[in-house]
Amino acid sequence: MSSVIRPATFEDITLVIEHDKRHMKEPGFNGSLSHPFLPDHEFDWDKRKEERLLSWTKPVSEEGWSRSFILVQDDLVLGHVHLKNLFHATLHRAQLGMGLEMAARGQGHGKKLLEMAIAWAREQESLSWIDLSYFAHNTPAKKLYTSCGFKELFVYEDRLRIGHHVIDDVVMTLKLK
């Protein structure tokens, strides 16, 4: 199987949304929760697709921009890193989210995706920081983010309650410049 890691294009949007659908159904590390949604959560995928496309068109200097980097294997997107802006006062920061489908985990793809996104962010004159959060029980995520230079800022204890699960959320940041 050949795999390619690259920036997502408008032509990739259907593959990206299909990846999101599959990834949202999968468990996280050691079968644990990996998303802040109940398993039966219903998404408006058409709206999500439109919003993603619109955010990809915005320049990094404009509120609401985003960029995605994808792992493509055999004409399927199996992983992503998504950088986005939350609001105008945070245009100097990017919020990072990422996910790999189970078939692509443990093979170094996550690090390559993350390195590509960080390199892109460093090229953006207006960006100074990348922020992220991960579930505290996800030790592979901690190892990955730390290996790429992210520093832990704090832990939100009891941040999420999903069903009967109580989840601590760890917040990390990376200074780009």
UniProtKB/TrEMBL annotation:
Pfam families, per the entry: Acetyltransf_1
Domain of life: Bacteria
InterPro entries: Acyl_CoA_acyltransferase (IPR016181), GNAT_dom (IPR000182)
GO molecular function terms attached to this record: acyltransferase activity, transferring groups other than amino-acyl groups
Transmembrane segments: none
Name assigned to this protein: Uncharacterized protein
Species in which this protein is naturally found: Bacteriovorax stolpii (Bdellovibrio stolpii)
